[in-house]
Each structure stands twice: as C-alpha cells, then as structure tokens.
Specification:
globular; single chain; 9 helices; Immunoglobulin-like; C8orf32 fold
Length: about 650
Amino acid sequence: MTKKLHLTILLFVLTWGTMQGQNFSREFGRIGKDEIELKHYSEDKDAEAIVLFDTGKSYFIETGNSFDVVFERTTRIKILSEAGINWAEVEIPFYQEGGIYEKVYDIEAYSYNYENGVINKTPFNVSNTFDEKINNSWNVKKFAIPNVKEGTIVEYRYKVSSQYKFNLRDWEFQWKIPVVHSEYEAKMIPFYEYSFLLQGANKFDSQNSYTDVGASRQFGAITFQDKVYNFTMKNVPAFNSEEFIASINDYIIKLDFQLSKIHQPGGATINIMTTWEDMNMNLLKHKDFGNYIERSEKLALKLLNNESLELNNDKEKFDHVIEYVKRNYNWDKTRGKYASKSPKKFVEEKYGNCADINLFAIGLLQASGIDAKPVLISTRDNGKIKYAYPFTHFFNYVIIQANVDGVNILTDATEILELDDRIPLRCINDRGLIIQKKKTEWIGLESVFPSEIKTNIQIGITSHALLSSSIHKSATEYDASYYRNNYSDDIETIKKSLETIDYLIIDTTIVIQNQLNREEPYILAYKQTSTPEIVNEKIYLSPFLNETISDNPLKQKDRTYPIDLTYPKKRIFKSTIVIPEGNKVEYIPSEQKIDNQLFELTYSTSIVDNQIIILFDYYFKKSIYSSNDYSKIKLYFNEIVKKGNEKIVLSKVLAET
C-alpha cells in the first residue's frame, strides 16, 4: 500500500524585510576566510552575534514494530561583541512523560579563534553537559562552549531520538539575533500525516518536495521511499523583543508540525485531528483529569466535615473550599494539565502540580454544591492557543471556573497570596477552554481590574543640603500580589530591592502591613536619604525621587505585535516638599492633562505656605493595546518619563540692601 503525504500549510502573516543573502560555508568544521574576517553584519550593525547557518532535519527510523523520530541540528554562530558571548551557551529541550521519552546524543561542539595568523580550534568536552528539570514533562540539557570571546566562531551539532510522534519539533527560523541561513528538512514516511503551520511570514525563500531516490524501505508488507520536504529562509532579521510581550512564541517566524492522521499498514486510517467536543469528552473520561475530579468529590465529606454544606450561600462555600485547599496543600511549582498522583496520595502528601491542586479543588466545590469546571489554558510563557487545531498539547495548565451566586469566577488554588477570585499573572493569556460535556466554550482570561500603586512622598532638606524623605506605598490587586510575593515582610529583602547608590534606605524605618491580609492593600513605608544636585547654589531635585520610571521601555520605531501590559495599571504620586528657610522656588514644572479612551495623565502643582505639592498620576486603561496604538503608547510613556523626572529648582533668597 502506498499513500501520499498531504501537507497543509497555515500562514500567519507578519511583514518582515527581505535582505540580501551572504555566502558562507555550511560545512561543519570548515571555517572560511570571510567568516574569520567578519566584524559586523551589514544588515544589522548593532547585532551582538549572528547565526551563520542553522540546519535541521527530522527522519523516521524503524524500532521493532514501530518508528522513532530522529532530529538532527547543526548550528554555527559568529560572536561579534562581548555581549554576544552568551550565545555560546546551548540549551536542548527534551521530553519525557510516562513511557515516552527522548534522548539527546552525539553532541559535538567547537570554538574557533583566529590568533597569530592561525585558527585555533577548541573542542567541547561532552562530559560537561548537565540536565535541568523544567516540569514533569520537559528537561533541558545545557552546556557552554569553551574559549569564547569577541570574534569567536562557535558551532555545534547534536541528535535527539524520540518516541513521541505527535508533533515533530518546531523549527524556529528567527532568533533574537540575525540568521543568515536557516534550513529545515523533514523526511516523511507514508504511515504518518502531518499538518504544517508557518507563523510570522507569508512565504519561504525556498520550498520544495521530492521523493528520496535512495534505496526503498520495507515495513511489514509495505515498500516505500521517504518523501522529503525542504524549507529555507535567508537573512532573517533578529526578533526585537521589547517589553510587554507575553511570549515570543506567538510572533517569531517558525514552522510547527502537528500529526493529523495515522495510516496503518493494514489499510485503516486513524484521525488524530478530531474536534474540541471529542477532546473535552476524552479529558472528562481521563483517569488523571475528569475521573480524578470524581474521586476527589468523594473525599469531600470526610475532609470538609460537612462545614461547607452548612454555609448559607455560594460565596461562603466557595471561599471556604478555596481557603481550605490553599491552607492545606502546597504547589510544587510544576505545571501540567493532568494530575500527577491519585487524590488519596495527594491528600496524604499535601503537595502536587497545578492540576493535582485545582482538579482536587473542583471536586470539593462540586461536593459543596458549587457548579465548578476545569479550564485548560496555556500560560503566558507557553504562547497562545491555535484555535483551529484541537490538540491537548497546546495546553500546559488548568485553572477553575466556579459559578458563585450566578457569577462565573476564575480562580487558582495554587496561589495562597492571591485573591480567591483572581488567577495569577502567569495564567492571564488570551482565552481558556472550559472542559464540559457536549459544549465547546472559551472564556477570556484578560484582567479588567485596574491595579493601583499610591506613593506618598514627603521631602525635607536639611541644613547640610541632604534630602530626608519619607515614602509610603499602598498597592492593590496584582501590584499588591507582586509585593507580597517578591518583597514579603522581610526587611533585608526590601532594603536590597529599594536601595541604590544614590538613595540610602534607613532599615529601622521600614514598615510592612497586610502581608497576609489579601483583602486590604499591601502597605510599605520607609525613609531614605539622598543628595540633591546643587549648581551655582541652586538646588535641583526630582519631586518623585527614584519612584517613577526613568526610561521609556518602548524603543522600536514601530511594532507589529500587541503591547501586552497584562492588566490595567494606575499610578498615583503625591510629593510634598518643604522649602528650606532662605530659599524660594525658581522653577516648577508646568501642569499637564491627557484623557482619552486609552490613557489618562494628570500633573498639577501648588505652593501652600512653605510647601510645594506635586500631584502626578497616570492610568493605562487597557491590559492589551493593539499594534496600531503603538506610537500613542510610546508617546504616553515619553510623557510619563518626562513629567515624572522633571526637576524643581530652588534658589537662595537675596538679602535686601
């Protein structure tokens, strides 16, 4: 039996500039004169390094009564500046779950330095690799190529064998540094049919397919030859990842592969690409998902002692269950969509992954009479879901939707310091899929709750021309969560986080309130000293000290992807400055007001008796802005930096003659 492999290419179109090719050797171990003499890349003169070539191939090898996939990669990089040395640090992800595993082998790497008219080649010792666990499914093999400095050429190659045929490895044509030549080859066999998805570009520089003219292969009674697909891109620009982007995986130029059908040697065809409804039903029947919820529900009466059933309303029951889970069970910081252990073992050990905790909490909520459902999501760093392709592997996390007194609430019981009706920042990423019977329903994960930080500053100027400042911060919502998780109530941690060369924190004055009281704003107060700028006996001081941003995070001329602030942000500053005796105000910044559907900014000043009062606030009203708004948002940040760092000038009062 012979079957043709059908390829479906889905194009996500983003515009990127075409650049002229350069002719460098792509033979491993052969370094040319042009590569040695290369000092900068003409297409990107600021590049810290460039990928001279990056080639990969995937092919199938027979293993008994099945096939494994072998992936080979060969890469050469030129280091152009000291900042580019980190590109000699290599990371190779590999998958392992249950009886499915991947193996990294045949690692080979070298550095080349041109010194005293000779190319010195330094080999990498493969024993210097180490593995790092990312989660229950993914590990990363890491190594650093030795003897690397500005001007060095590094190259490496390796192989990965995999039993996992569901999706071949993604191929990223685009890096955060320019790529001169990127090429991927897939050798397909007639038993597996894949869909190919191209993201970030509308075409390849070269694309062709052909039947391998080599010797035919035999599997069972089937004789076949590999079908080869080749994809090439040249002079791919660096992906300039600015602030406010959830994951470059959503926008970088890459090729993704998804198994759509399996053609068995006997003639039967298994459709892998099913429907969201079928995927939902499979999950609800899965022993580590839907069945896990049912088993957790049976434990509820014993664990909750009927307390939640005796409460008056849904809100009380919901809070009781979520608080019970948060207080008694710990998240092991690993992500996943399936429970890693039985509910009974989870209760005994009192820790687990996000699915263990949240699926368990759903069971308890359902036992308490709350309509609760699991919601599959992809976390921010994992990228957005491709809604046209119903595959579970797009998802890496599960949260909870609960109907509480007629209102649908999203929650995550892994986060003890987060409000019970909020999900953590890592989970705010487009939409999630509600797992339920006979219905496909997506729910938005975007936060509509503004997070606010109020900063009250009081500044006095001592007789020794020192600024003595008292600072009081009040944070709500996700800003409060940030402080609780990163600052906590540890005085030494807070001091290290706040103190700079110019501002000395007086640690005995640090006060923290509401670290564990999530319903109230997180409060941080402290005192600091600093030295103002004095020129010709005039005092120049910034009324907001170092509390406002000093640099615009948006630097690109334009942008083709959204500005993702994660949540609406409101910042309110009030600075009260006592004018020292014998001084007067020579200059005070002008007032300003901006107010539209996207953004709001207010800056006002007043002088009352011997005090200068400066009020400054701004509000980004949306969590995500489209790329069409980039120039406006960039302008607003410019205004924040400008007004937030404008200085007041005080001068001496001249004695009357």
